[in-house]
Amino acid sequence: MACLKTFPYLHRSRSLIGFGSLFASPRLSSSPHRRLFATPSFSSSTNAAGMAADSIVEHVVLFKVRDSTEQSKIDAMMSGLQSLVSLDVVAHLNAGPILRHRSEAASAAGFTHLLHSRYRSKDDLATYSGHPSHVAVVKELVLPISDDIMAVDWVVDLDGPVLPPPGSAMRLTLAKPKEGAAAELIETLGKVKVSAPAAVTQVSFGENFSPARAKGYGVGLLTVFRSLEALDAMDAGQKDLVDSVKEKVRPLLESFIVLDFVLPPPTAANL
Fold first, then answer.
1. Is residue 75 packed enough to be buried (19+ CB in 10 Å), middle (13-18) or exposed (0-12)?
2. What is the pLDDT of residue 183?
3. Among candidate residues 224, 201, 207, 261, the one with its CA nearest the CA of residue 62
């Protein structure tokens, strides 16, 4: 599900945490599918120790499942996607419902589900994308019930474990720079120096290298929090900080998608 085109930019700092909450609006709607199932997260056995890699490829796919879709077909899609963690090249994979949309563009797009996976290299991502098992899941289980699909990939020197801890809350921010503003956006973000609060366990940030299915969204940011409560507390308690970062970044953007999702705790029910 990736078109591989190399971009050299790598993010090595945890200084961009303010950007993870830049555009979030608590008034925006939750996903209509958030109640449908509890979703476990998965990791390959080679990453059980949770050691960080020097370079990790992030792969994020957003799905818009039709409102009329039967629950059994949604469950089948999720089970099929989750089964792909068994592929040797997959370092981490989690698939489930989007908890809530936190920007106008996210609400307008109407994505309902998300897949987040990690790979040791772009070659591993390419192998995953072309693997017969992956192709079969997409063809037989995903495409028949999806109105829209969007994919974004980036490379990061990752701080912390490849596998986010169960119960973590994640905020995904996808930015579409204005024409000619991509380099300035990256440079501006790189200059933002904000200390990450204790609630933040990981920040992954980079420039998309798979433009074919990204709908013009050229920068991806994934901010990981200890819990949903920790994410919400940051939203409520750091408004001034977020507003100051907005002033620097927002003029460079044409659009931005912000949404939240949660990795359930180990006691969450399996499908």
1. middle
2. 80
3. 261
